[in-house]
Amino acid sequence: MQAxxxxxxxxxxxxxxxxxxxxxxxxDRENGIEATSNTKANEEIVRLIGQYLKNEGLSKTCDAxxxxxxCRLDHPAAAKFRQQVMDGDWTKADHxxxxxxxxxxxxxxxxxxxxxxxxxxxxxxxxxxxVLDALHVLRNELTPLQHNTQRVHQLSSFMMCxxxxxxxxxxxxxxxxxxxxxxxxxxLQSYLPPTVMLPxxxxxVLLNQALELQTIRCTHHYTSIDVALNNSSLLxxxxxxxxxxxxxxxxxxxxxxxxxxPLKKGPLRKMWLCFPQASD
Length: 280
Ligand SMILES: [Zn+2]
Hints:
With 280 residues, the chain is mainly α. Helices cover 50% and strands 0% of the residues. The chain starts with 31 loop residues before the first helix and ends in a 6-residue tail after the last helix. Residues 1-39 are annotated as: Disordered.
């Protein structure tokens, strides 16, 4: 598979003049642009699957997939950056952040990203009772950024916490470790272009969007439960059975009772809006 965003490991160029034979089985394509377009889509699908596998802890399978497809999950600098954040190696994370600076696009959020990293570093020092180190981060690293001063003041107040429990309660922070660093990484990822690093849980987001669209298209949608990945099948489109659709009145609104909640989505909402609503 050829990459279209420069992340292919072999650096080979995609067929562009209609004479080169694509490697992905589309030998019948005569138009080089069409072949390139499909290659880009294929590469993105592979990256989405790779991210899902990695999130599920199947790193070796992800590596094999990337190797065989000649794709890269993330830009090498971004991959290193993620590893340093997850390892809590803040000095190296900052170094790799500088490498990513040129890839951040017009809305350069380097200061905000640096702030988020230093915030985590500061809180981890506090949890470890390394008060002097925490104070150093606050005075010499966070404050000079001149960014989100209100939050800096709030962070300084956490120094007064007398125990880890009190610190976690006041900060609403998960504490030093995988969970809080994953949350941090999710925030940082939102500032990186998708060509550099995929947004968090991208495949799940897309699948949930697909389910939401199926719900809107469901002609007899009749459930108050949100259709989501944890209660639906992806193997067939969502469709409420016609037999379950209410055909008879089961409840009447009595005078003085609380007004019934309108339907939020689905075709029944249109019907709801057609009915005159009795005033209390
Ligand atoms: Zn339905």
